[in-house]
Specification:
This protein is an alpha/beta fold and 313 residues long. It has helices at residues 41-55, 91-99, 108-119, 185-195, 213-221, 225-249, 265-278, 296-312; strands at 5-11, 15-22, 27-34, 62-67, 70-71, 76-78, 88-89, 103-107, 128-133, 137-143, 146-147, 253-257, 288-291. It contains eight helices and 13 strands.
Length: 313
């Protein structure tokens, strides 16, 4: 074949997206399923295999798998708090057995960073951090053009930096006050539920039963005062945290993606204001915040697939 094709898989707490990707960065087949519908990883892999086989796409150069708490060194998902599969899951071995080809595991946020670097809004950057705002919060770190994975493959778990360690919200990791319990889709909903007794009767949110984060952000765009208060609080915590992160990696930019990030430039502007308020003087005005040019699931799929081209070449 003139082109190589890889299968990119993004396993998330809410949904699993997958796609057949060319080495030119084109997704030629895309599918997604609710992760929680599959009590075991074997059942999920069987469904992905069935859909790919039915579509009749080419043999794969490799399979790239993005997943929370993915250990690139072992090929295992290890104690992921946002997945229903508990303990250690040998995800690479399971995919290789079913598809009869090589696979590689990459943390979901790292996969997004690779996707942005190769095909997205970070092609011109050698120093950047991707912040994934989904069910949880992840980060992928690129320094001097290289992905930082750490000794055990867990570098970039910035969602578990504790922003309120004393009396903060309980996190799925078992600790209190982690960043992702405030800044993520679930974090936004938790803020809404904590403040619901203070919601004015004229708020647009009173008309929505059990609003999710996107509904809250939609009401903010419509100038709803209560929704604005929630979005401002979320942006404040994220901007302050990115200011702290800047001291560690000195990035050219943070690239935000995920549902709430895609709410638009207005949210980015709020985060940028908070970052500048809190960042150290030598870095003021030197760190951009960009929005992903890719849809959130596409960035992870492209990044997972791109990792196979990079590692197996």
């Amino acid at each position: 074949m003139d082109q190589k094709h890889a299968l990119g898989v993004d396993i998330g707490g809410t949904k699993t997206a997958f796609g057949v990707v060319s080495d030119k960065g084109v997704i030629i087949f895309h599918g997604e399923v609710p992760t929680r519908d599959y009590p075991t990883p074997d059942e999920l892999i069987k469904e992905i295999h069935a859909q790919i086989s039915e579509a009749g796409y080419p043999d794969f150069f490799g399979i790239g798998i993005g997943a929370p708490n993915g250990n690139a060194l072992t090929g295992n998902i290890e104690f992921a708090p946002n997945l229903m599969w508990k303990g250690i899951v040998p995800i690479c071995s399971l995919f290789e057995e079913k598809f009869e080809t090589r696979s590689i595991l990459i943390n979901d946020a790292n996969a997004a960073a690779v996707g942005e670097r190769m095909f997205g809004n970070a092609k011109d950057l050698d120093h950047f951090v991707t912040i994934t705002l989904g069910t949880g919060l992840g980060s992928g770190i690129i320094i001097e053009g290289h992905l930082v994975e750490g000794q055990h493959g867990f570098a970039g778990e910035y969602g578990h930096i504790r922003v309120f360690p004393e009396n903060g919200r309980l996190c799925g990791c078992g600790r209190n006050g982690c960043l992702e319990t405030y800044v993520s889709s679930t974090g936004v909903v938790r803020t809404f539920k904590e403040w619901i007794n203070e919601m004015p009767s004229d708020s647009l949110l009173t008309k929505i039963e059990n609003p999710d984060a996107l509904a809250i952000f939609d009401c903010w765009k419509k100038k709803d005062a209560f929704a604005t208060r929630i979005v401002d609080y979320t942006a404040q915590i994220l901007g302050r945290s990115l200011a702290d992160f800047s001291c560690f990696s000195n990035p050219q930019a943070f690239v935000l993606f995920g549902g709430i990030a895609q709410s638009g430039q207005g949210f980015v502007d709020k985060v940028k204001i908070e970052l500048e308020k809190n960042i150290i003087e030598p870095l003021k005005g030197k760190v951009e915040i960009r929005l992903s040019l890719l849809h959130d699931e596409n960035a992870a799929i492209l990044g997972s697939a791109a990792t196979t081209f990079w590692k197996f070449n």
